[in-house]
Amino acid sequence: MNNLSMEEIRQNIQKVIIGKDEVIDLIMTALLAEGHVLLDDVPGLGKTLMAKAFARSLDCSFKRIQFTPDLQPTDITGMNYYNQKSGEFVFKAGPIMSNVVLADEINRAVPRTQSALLEAMEERQVTVDGVTYSLSEPFIVIATQNPVELEGTFPLPEAQLDRFLLKVRIGYPNLKEEVEILRRFKSRDPLKELKAVMTPEEIIELRQRVKKVYVEDELLVYISELVHATRSHAAIRLGVSPRGALALLKASSAYALIKGRDYVLPDDIKYLFPFIAEHRIILTDDAELRGISKGEIIKEIIEQVQVPVEEVS
Fold it and tell me: What global pTM score does this model have?
């Protein structure tokens, strides 16, 4: 992806979202790496608005699923219904059959409903009544959740969390950004005016280019050492899985392409590792009792694992 194309996407989203270049780049990284994103932050910071602005910037089909405790798996995947006119069962596709799916407040649905996303996110297909339906490409799930409010929520199980390539926080705007938000939204909704600037065919082409991004063998070792460090750390009960290691490799390649390079740098891996690892590790009971954060441990691992010094040519 050339820098002009990436800047066009960024500028388009920033007609709605003030600042947040990092979040935009990370969501685009997930899209090109064929992964999914979990936006995890307190209410009111624009998680849903970010997902909508991103979806509208792509000339793709978009569906929003509002997760609630009474949401059923068939409300996501679709279902077969009897058509009296034709005298046969007909499949009615659910909202998962879209290119971009916003799973809003995903942790408000019961685990059985949450698990309806697993097959779609991992295998790009859904199975209803024994029949498998392939999803259209490109396909990405952008999920949001509120980490503060616990009443009426169901924490995502490890198997579900592992399907998300990245876990990202939006963060509060600074003072200048907040003033601009008030100015921009006081009399109109810029989201309604947003136009698409990238087609599905362009996204698929960029995904193929990601696979050709060069990665030195030393960097493969570096990724493996970071992942293995999470499995041997005294404060971690469950470390990053091999799927997580592959996620770091794919994300680093996509991020390099977004930054205008056809090769991965060690800094790409270091930068992305916290977004890949935090939602994949589980701390020991002792570490949690002592108030140690996952972020502190990940930072410690990054500092301890030796970075390859040989320059990538």
Answer: 0.89
